[in-house]
Amino acid sequence: MTLNDFRERINVFLHPRREGVLNAFRTLNVFVTLLAFGSLIAYYGYPFDSDTAAQLITCIKVGFGFYILHFFIRWTFDFHPLRFLRSNAFEAAVMALLILEGVSDILTGKVFLGRALSPLGIESVEDWTVWLVQAYFLVVLVIELSDRARTLPRFRFHPATLFIFSFLFLILSGTGLLMLPEMTTDGLGMPFFDALFTSTSATCVTGLMIENTETFFTHKGHVVLMVLIKLGGLNIIAFGSLIALLARFGVGVRQHEVIEDFVNRGSILGTRGMLSRVILWSIGIEVLGALLLFIFWPGQLFDGPSDRLFNSLFLSISAFNNAGISLFGDGLADGRVAGAWLVHWTVTLLVFIGALGMVAVFDLFGRDNLQERMRKPWKRIGFATKIALYYSLGLVAIGAISYLLLESGQGGTIADMGWTGRITTAVFQSATRTSGFNTVDIGAIGTPMLFMLVILMFIGASSSSTGGGIKTSTFAVVISDVMGTIRGRQHPQLFQRSISTALTTRAWGILMFFIVGNLLGTFALSITEPHILAGSDRGFLQLLFEQVSALGTVGLSTGITHEISGLGRGILIASMIIGRVGTLTVAFAFSRAVVSRNYKYPEGHTMVG
After folding, report:
1. Residue 549 domain flag
2. How far is C-alpha 316 from the geometric centre of its chain's CA atoms?
3. How far apart are CA 557 and CA 437, in angstroms?
4. Is residue 42 in some structural domain?
5. For residue 475, is it within any domain?
6. Could you tell me if 130 and 40 are in contact, meaning their C-beta atoms sit under 8 angstroms apart?
7. pLDDT digit string (tens) for 192-221?
């Protein structure tokens, strides 16, 4: 009897039992995953005695054992075992890791990765492994439930709606985690409203903080903040890249149906692998940035390699995602790193790439595009990439030159620095206008440069990026339309391309959206924060700066965030959420197809200006 004949007999024997067994395991998988994830949160979020902690660890281990058994059952009942392993290679690798860790734990009392990396000074790697593996299975469970939910096919979720709700879910989840006792050094957890503000700031990659990140949060709290930054930034990049990709071809009814089907399927690797490329590229850039930071940190800054590595990874993720949160009390203006110029330049580069947008990054550095430009020297980068790159460089140059001219004089924030420090600081503060990092005391900056920073924050980053603001593309289209009007052109022009009326209308709509939003927010803050307006070293400009920073999801502050009242923080929370989801959803709404009508109203005419 051949191997194929033997396998065929097994398939014949298993087939009548296949659906019943697999459905039973799928049902059990829901309860086991939720139980294991809940046990993880309880174990790391609350202090327990040794017996209770051991019981929670047992629940987690039982969950991992179930995942191995579930995978083995699926493999056994599949009609093509080898094809199943090839198509589920990543999950098979995760199972192999779990088996290796389980055997190592049974034989030695310590997981394999922990024993392998402990000589390098890297501790608690098993904690990271447990969280990453459990998070993976939770994501798989969510996707599987969305695929099998009977109610979903009855509804068609607009991608913008799904985008908004995903952010709200992340914010509320982060709020709950930050309220756990083990997240703060005082062992009490954050109050709800403070946790909501902090979670919103991290998820919307804004960076406005009301507590000292270094001293207020424990290592577990730092991990939660880092995960919120990563997930929030990834969500922004993915949705922004989808809009930018569709904008190349125009968005019609047919494309909307495709997008909605894509969303309803819950595929995390759909749209021609776009999302998978976004994930892999963003992780690759962050890992490379963390490696450079690990090398460039000065002297004996950290307790050991593990602490050095975590700080490098945290800052790299925060920088690339334009979050502006660091683990130093005074940001990068902290005395321990204030003169670490290589660290500053690394952060500047990460922020600039993150603010450039993934579509532009793919166009500039994608292997296929690079090879094509080498084979065909006449090929140029795309129109959208030109806007993102040239306008970003132009804004950085304008901001840096302005900073050098306005802050080098007596009493300026860079007056006492050498030219290396002056140039580094000027470029850093100009490039990080989208992220909220600071290497000087922002509150000490003079009024002219402070107002210049308000303008730069208002413009913000590029489309499909982690940064906020009206975006460089919106700014470029508005400028080209204004210049076209001045020169009497019927159609605006930009980089030897004509700008359509629809695109111009969209840009002006987003511009007005931001102007009105900042005016209303600042007006509301002027009502709720009279004590700031009455301060000798505070005033209206500080409130405007804070509001523009929140709506633009920047995170720069003149130092008044912790002084703002509860109502004021509520206004900033709303501004951060609206600023994060607003421009993308407005852009998507304006992109929707309009049904053509064969009539129009008579033209009206009025004087303008």
Report:
1. no
2. 12
3. 10
4. yes
5. no
6. yes
7. 999 999 999 988 888 888 888 888 998 888
